[in-house]
What does this fold into?
Amino acid sequence: MEEFLKQYDIKIPVYVSERVKLEKNNLFANSSATLLQHVKDIIANYNSNPQKKVLTTKRNKTDKIGIKSINAIDISFNRDECLLLQVTAYKTNLLDGYYQDGEEKQQINFQQLDKLCSDTYFYVLYPLIRRNHNSNEDEVYWQLFIYEDPSKSDEEMVQIGRSMMRHILKTPIKNIKSEKLIEDLKAHKLADVEIVLSSFDEDDSSDGKPVYVKDYQYSCKFKREKKILLSGMRIQDVLEIYNDRTDFDTSNYTKRQLKFLTEDRHTYSIVQEYKDIIKEAIEDSFNYKESVSEEDVKSKKIFEVDEIRKHMEGVFCNYLANQTK
It folds into this structure.
């Protein structure tokens, strides 16, 4: 009987940073080589300063994720120079849990200052320069390719990537304006739309309070969530979804998450939160994936530089081709 070989996906989302204006000092000042060298200098300075490490937390969670160091590796796709960033990150402030060896003979309880580390968080950083011949400034922005391997959570990979871009490289991931979103949606052919509505509501106790709480002060909240998936929508209906506010006005939902996925793997993610006014954040990203075998995952071959380049190359070229259409 032929043995079944399990396959995993390596997801490779692509994010774009905010644009930074750089003055033209001379003809060769703003080049990919100088920008990449500048990033390497920033990283070297960060690595040499053990007292100032970036720590991030998630809302309502005690554990923290820190970036211990970054190894900047020169790579290229065709003639495009990039940096492969190998990030060593750790979880700390672990108030629960323990380590146990494979034979279950040893158990070590985590302490608050202990660190659970990994040195296989990989990202590709690619610079783009928009030259303005009518000004003494160029616009520079970065494209961050995230190598989301099967051993890590996608959320954690994105969180570390965001933290690195914002706090270390000082070029945060870009949020786009609603006008730009509408313009971009009209220019793409949409494949799927995902809508998630949620809220936390006070318990009205319509089903009765438990007997054991009758002598105590009592409060209770419950979460409501509705998920809607739509395919093949017309652009006018998509824009109507985006502009519609009845989910907040009549249904008492306080949060709405929208994802618009295009046929060329472009994803627009919108988070809208409503209290007295609607607060909105819009992100623009591309999403690709590559298949890998279970054997390559277990042997850690997927973390070899040549293997990462192989999986990234098609994504990189495909993404740039979409950008120039």
Observations:
- The mean pLDDT is 81.
